[in-house]
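Incident review: delayed structure delivery

Summary: a single-chain prediction request sat in the queue longer than the usual turnaround. Root cause was a stuck worker, restarted by the on-call engineer. No data loss occurred. The affected request and its eventual output are reproduced below so the record is complete for anyone auditing the incident later.

Affected input:
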Amino acid sequence: MPSVVRDLFENYVKEQFNLEDCIAVNNGTSAIIAPLWSMDLQSNDEVITTPFTFIATSNAILIAGAKPVFVDIDPETLLLDPNKIEEKITPNTKAIVPVHLYGRICDMKKINEIAKKHNLVVIEDTAQAFGASTPCGKHAGMMSDAGTFSFYKTKNISTFEGGMICIPKNSKLDSIKVRSICNQGQIGRYNHEFLGFNFRLAEPLCLMAYEQMKLHMKGIKAELGLRGPEKGHYPNVVYDQPIYKKKGITGDCPIAESVAMSIRNGTYEK
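Output delivered after worker restart:
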């Protein structure tokens, strides 16, 4: 079935950011799952991420079949500390998923250098930073192997529910496979090459996203101020959640734990 509006939206984003591909999906969690799923991760594989964010990021790693390994945060930026990544890398490490939190951008230069050294895939969780850019003009979510985005109702581009995957040129990921996984693993109609999902963003929601981007692309800013530690994000590190304790998933990130406790107690100060 032709997807004229979806194609219109995806091609618009591809052209704006000079991407290999853009895939509109039904939410930001699906956007993380699909590129990870395309890597055919095994149960002993590990993916490095931050414990100080919404649980969806590490849930996606688990759903894709791997184990999340948590690296502590920088106390100033509250983002994944690149100086602590290498000590957590093992022969089982396959990827890094940094999270651009509160509209702030992780140190992607350092993260990408580490990934290149160890031959790791980097997938940027950009759910809270669409439109953010570095001083040299590089866009959040466009600096590695893939960037994932959310169009939830609290985001600066909103379809109430929705998201997208941006795959830059020269990505280590197979963009055709990632796209196929979002459409029940199809390569051509009724030819299912991979185990996939229905992650497609509905056509009316693609139109909503397209119209917003056309109007606001030049002046769009990340959602700084909509979320932040002063507003209660986030009162617990991910590995302290009951479901993670039940599964025996642990972490050792004292800075993240301290920041989360101060948010929980209402004592956080910049």
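Verification: Residues 4-232 form a domain with the Aspartate Aminotransferase; domain 2 fold (CATH 3.40.640.10).
Action items: add queue-age alerting; document worker restart procedure.
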